[in-house]
Design goal:
heterodimer, A: alpha/beta, TIM Barrel, 2 domains, eight-stranded parallel sheet, three-stranded mixed sheet, 13 strands, disordered N terminus, B: alpha+beta, 50% helix, 25% strand
Amino acid sequence: MEREIVTAKKFGDPGMVRKRSMKRKVKLFKAIPANNTLQKEIFFILAAVVLVLGTLNIAQARGLLIPQQPQLVIIDNTIDLSSMTLEQKIAQMVVVHGGIWNLEPWKNMQLGGIHLFALEREELYIDTIGQFQNEARIPFFVSIDLEGCWNPLANFRESVSVSEITEVGQAFQKGSEEGEYLKRLGFTINFAPVVDLDDQIWGCRSFPGDETKVASLAEAYVLGLQNEEMISTAKHYPGKTLVVRDPHKYLVVAEIADQDIYPYQELADNVKSVMVSHVIVSGAVDSEGLPSVVSSTAISALKKNFAGLIISDEINMLGLKNFYSSQDEMYLAVFKAGNDLVLNFNEDPNEIKHMIEVVAEAVEGGEIPEEQIDGSVRKILELKGFTVS
Amino acid sequence: MASPKAWAVINVSLGVVALFLVLNLMEVKLPALGKSVEMLESESFCVMKNWPGEFIEREIRPCCLEKAQLTLGCKKGTWYYQDQTLQWQCLTGNGIEYYLNGAGNSYCKKVW
């Protein structure tokens, strides 16, 4: 007690010395200097610390603390896979939303691609894409969903709905015109055509007719688009994606018939990529109770007949997330299943970085074979025009 | 001039703020945030008017993604669908329309 009073006295609060009943307060305040000058000094130090920490927090939230990946060595347009870090390889398998506010983190992470949403004018697309591609050692895939009635460019350019296309020539012309236009804006992939046989939701995203008609119109569209060096994507494997479901009940199993997968079989030799949906399926393709995008059985069935790029549908869907106890588990499942390119439109750069780290750890731990990652990266780099050694 | 006690309170508060900022930098997430997000999700509602002009109730996540992909913005007003009052209308260039209630719109803003 003697010592406490002396301490209190030293800091100049006479009230605490006079009243023994204030013993508890003395104890409380003995650690807090009563001298205003010292308090002010502490205040300024703490304020500075809060300011620095606040700035760091903002920088972190915007992904500005994410370190830049080492620069790749590219000789004569050839990339040696063994010169890439595991993180660089996995990053090449990721497509994110190309919001310009994330320009720096996406470039620092050397991601595989960006996907663009609706913008007001075509100059904005050209400018955004230009900024992303500027000085990128490996260019980004730049994707869009330009299907027809589903048209992010609708603010300045009309697009004929595929449901109104009945002739192969029309489909080829549509593919050609859209390919030429998208190429001019800087796009490299169009996530089209839709080859689902029955569009009950939008009523305009599918070609009309039975499976043979849909396959022939889709093939013509693919050839037209790819003729303009635009990668075309048949979607949404294995079908029944545009069928109305109760929005509160995700666990509905769709029965896939042979007709549903017919367009994919017909397009296998021509189309460069296929997008896999979140629908749980049985029948001609069985996803074994899992959403198709995380079902290695469903994806293996596709790979039997198709050697091109396999793209996941956007993975931030509640129906998919609810299948797993954690987000990390879901990330692993999507990569493990055999998708080559994973669409994750989460705007948080730290989350994307985290996903890459989770997958890298799983590869290092032997949970995902590195050969599988290498196989996917090889396809991606070759489609980007590189030779891979 | 602030009293020593006031200074102490200010400094302790700053210390607590600093602590939270450090925790945030270390990516420590507070569980309460997840709970509130979950509550929001259960109240969210989205309905879409398709090309033939039918109204279809949609799962909130795909609805948000489609709205983000296809529209530039939404306008506020009052629309009715069955027993729901919807406050936001989002138009695409091709006649497809999305309608959201307040919770749905806030949720969509948070995710995309």
